[in-house]
Amino acid sequence: xxxxxxxWCLIMLFSCGVWSCSSHPYTATNNIYKKKxxxxxxxxxxxxxxxxxxxxxxxPVYWVGTTNFGMRKPNMVIIHHTAQNSCEQTLxxxxxxxxxxxxxxxxCKDGTLHHMLNDYLRAWHAGSAKWGNNSDINxxxxxxxxxNNGVDSFSRAQINCLLGLLSDLKKTYNIPSANFIGHGDxxxxxxxxxxxxxxWKILASQGYGLWYSDTSGVVVPPGISDDxxxxxxxxxxxVRAAAIQAFRRHFIGLDQPGDLTGPERKVLFVLxxxxx
Length: 276
What we know:
Blueprint: H1 2-23, H2 27-45, E1 76-81, H3 87-93, E2 105-107, E3 113-115, E4 141-146, H4 156-173, E5 180-182, H5 183-186, H6 200-205, H7 226-233, H8 240-252, H9 262-275
Parallel strand pairs: 1-4, 1-5, 2-4
Antiparallel strand pairs: 2-3
């Protein structure tokens, strides 16, 4: 009887273990993650080779590896909204290889935080984008996706989660306050996220992004163009109308086209001084 009961217990334990594994919807894609990370680890461990593509390069007699190095660190944070209908939909999108999109973090409406990619690895979240002279944003940034359909306001739980995450990232990687920006800022002709309801002022008050104070007495000197000031902040003005709208969405809280008004130009002028 004892052996029979023991056998049933072992069968039940085994069954529970199998059920637990099979019930995890991302077991297969997690294995793909581990395989790819392992492949990159092999590349990092390999001895660096001297290029042989040019005859003018003379090969050394022996290899000398430096003892002074570390991992490359991210220096920017790009905030997105998912433009999808649920956190689960976004997780599925980021685990389908054919989509070729990803982010380091995803924040669900209830404040659940998914850390999907090691911060030192390059996520595919920015796409074709530019900020200042940086045209490869993916290589220097951390991407954060917030579950939002692109229209709704962001939940308190999401913002609280985001603030906690940004505190950790800023401290860990010493990211400058000016380098917390939105996807719409770096790709104004293509993107508008995070949407106009996003509380940039709250983030800036805690050191994640820059903001401005009272501008009522500010006088914008003659001869200074809006394009010049937008470029100083970092905007790509190739599509000028889109850059102005992105600026207005982020710093004025309005998502509408058109040239900047007088008060908006004052805000732009004050902010440009902070980015110098």
